[in-house]
Amino acid sequence: MVLSRAATESGENVCSTFGSRYVRTALPKHKIGESSIPKEAAYQIIKDELMLDGNPRLNLASFVTTWMEPECDKLIMESINKNYVDMDEYPVTTELQNRCVNMIARLFNAPLEETETAMGVGTVGSSEAIMLAGLAFKRNWQNKRKAEGKPYDKPNIVTGANVQVCWEKFARYFEVELKEVKLSEGYYVMDPDKAAEMVDENTICVAAILGSTLNGEFEDVKRLNDLLVKKNEETGWNTPIHVDAASGGFIAPFIYPELEWDFRLPLVKSINVSGHKYGLVYAGIGWVVWRTQQDLPDELIFHINYLGADQPTFTLNFSKGSSQIIAQYYQLIRLGFEGYKNVMENCRENMVVLREGIEKTERFNIVSKEVGVPLVAFSLKDHSFHNEFEISEMLRRFGWIVPAYTMPADAQHITVLRVVIREDFSRTLAERLVADIVKVLHELDTLPSKISKKMGAEDFGNVKGKKVDRDVLMEVIVGWRKFVKDRKKMNGVC
User: Fold this and answer.
1) Which cofactor does it need (predicted)?
2) pLDDT tens-place string over residues 218-229
3) CATH of 349-446, one of 3.40.50.1980, 3.90.1150.160, 3.30.450.40, 3.20.20.80
């Protein structure tokens, strides 16, 4: 092994990082430093500061994979210096991406012959995948309207109010009107009947969610398809469906195979899925696949040749790493159908353990469904003295990161806590989390209401007259949010 010693400005060797001047010198924060520092010191100082981050394994807010096998970690590091876009230089990596696209398309029942190549692409995540799918829908709609001699300047897309923010980004960035189906108490996904009613001749597609971010529920894509088939026949339109399967795409095929949501439905033209969620790969990989080549307009595909050969490309970015693509292929061949099924069944069973443990406290209403993404979303039955934000905050003392949030439009008076069950969340951790929730509840019961103690009347408003429970709850939520926001400002957190 080669031993390296870093020399300081005075020429002495630094044998111990903590014995050097670098641990007592302020690090650059706003402009690059004038001089270099030893690699050992740079590593140690940054590593120490990163200790203040949360533990990814205990981050129960995220759907994103936080554990992979050491063999896959090794593959990732061995390929981290490969730029995927250099297809001519890295033809095997390109082939591995194509294999992943073919496997995923067939997993979603694309109508392909045995050796036929699927149409799809790897992306940096489902956000990019959704942008690409949305652009394809918009261009197909525009081409059809132009051919018919009709206006094509006011496209719209129909979604539920529960969609992830990337759909709002798509609508704003690419000038498409977003028509949202509002939610209601007890029904936190898009109503297919209301969605079909909102469709008009300018609708480029209806986006259905297979695994709502809010409560994990699968939307009824089959009913939406049947309603649109009927409406298309009546109107002569050809309104298609995109399925946002970011969370559920690697779940439904393995444990809900009878559920019809994919290319078995004729109006489903494209599907996106996050490889870095239940595809079991670290953050940075998503996929979008189209039903047929005709569903992706040729004019959206660019061809370049300055990297050594003609290369078709359809992405929003250009350069990106190859590691996550290789990691996805590793998981697909390593686990196979049987392995993915076992993982998803384990997640579902651990979800049931956590759900039953929370129900036994008799303090919460369960908002999530038993069929869907393996997560538990729950809200307090009684908000008289404390709320979900306090529980979320106090659980951090035990290391758990459990988010509290309000529902979207027309259900915003509902506040929930959500725990996502990932591959690395065992039954032991589920039982420990329940025990810690019980501890937090007992501690809150011994404390005076934090809201009434910390807030003044001005935070809740001076409202006269009798109020319904919903009004009181909304005041509590708004007041608590203001308190948390003000306290973060005092702590210098942004």
Assistant:
1) pyridoxal 5'-phosphate
2) 999 999 999 999
3) 3.90.1150.160
